[in-house]
Structure formats: structure tokens, C-alpha cells
Amino acid sequence: MTSMLEVPQQEDHVVLLDSVPHPAADAAEPFIVASDRRVILAYPIAESDFERFGPFDSDDDPFCTVLFPDAVFHRLGPPGDVDLEIHPLASQGLTGYSVHEVMNSSLAAEISDVTSPGPVQRHFVITFQGATFECVASDYTVVGVFGAGEIACREAFSLIR
N or C: which end of the chain has fewer CB within 10 A? Predict the structure, then answer.
């Protein structure tokens, strides 16, 4: 029996999201456009996802654009692929060049403790060659997969307006 003074321990659990294209290795860096409550991330997709999210022309450089609505936190920075093992979620299954959701997220719980009530917040992590993107938002939507980064970036800017 637990006493009322004991606080249950938050246990982060990392789950791969296969409905989102994997980031490409050795490619251009991701691009973020953000407003007060929306974050849009554009990044080059892995060649292994070309067939699944294509078709693309041979001279295309496919990028996807992902929208995170009701965002209350986002960051893009270290660690990258080389030192991903230092990320606090590495021991929970965080992998390189992948898209993840953190179930039972301690970060989302911490943020919800200091923000106004709103939609349920979810914690997303996308790993790239040189950086890791994290976002706490109500959901995610793959807005599109485009043949070039310029098109994906234009789409990202149009979603912010």
C-alpha cells in the first residue's frame, strides 16, 4: 500500500512512429518554422521511404513537412547521431534517423504542470545526423512529402500565416 505522500514515478517509454518518413542520413539539416502555438518541421526523407511516400523523379530531393499543433515546447540541438547515447531517452529506445513519440513523458508532464489547461500534450522526438528535434504538442500531421526542400519550406511558411 502506498501512502498519499508518495508520488508515482514518471516512466518515459519511447515508441517508433512509422507513419512519418524517416530522416535522411548525410542530408540537409531540418528546417523549423514556428509561431506562438504551431511548429512546422521540414526535413529530407530517407531513401528507404521514397517508394512508400513517392513516387519521385530521379532528380528529386524529397522532403516532408510535419505540423505540430498546440505546441508548448520545441527545440533543435545536440545530441546528433554520433553522440545520441548521451540523450536521456537513449536507454528507453531512442534511435538515430527515426521519428518517436514518448509515452508517459516526464517532459510533457513537467510542462503541463506550469502551463494553462489545454489539449493533452504529447512528446515527439525526431533524430537527425547533427541534431535532435523535440516537441511537446497536442498531435502531429504529415502535411505532405514534396520533391524538393524549397517546396516543403514554402508549405511550412504558408501554414504559419
Answer: N
